[in-house]
Amino acid sequence: MPQLNPSPWFFIMIITWLTFSLIIQPKVLKFTTTNPPHNKKPKTFKTTPWTWPWT
Known about the structure:
Layout: H1 6-29
């Protein structure tokens, strides 16, 4: 069963991990969000208690 031989797959995994962490990840983290959060006050709604007909 050749898939159990870690020799080629370990090298591919290490190269992929290094490519992602050193090249792709910094480029992705440079992007700014298109919808930044605002310091808005949350809306508070006035609620009325529910009147149950059987009570």
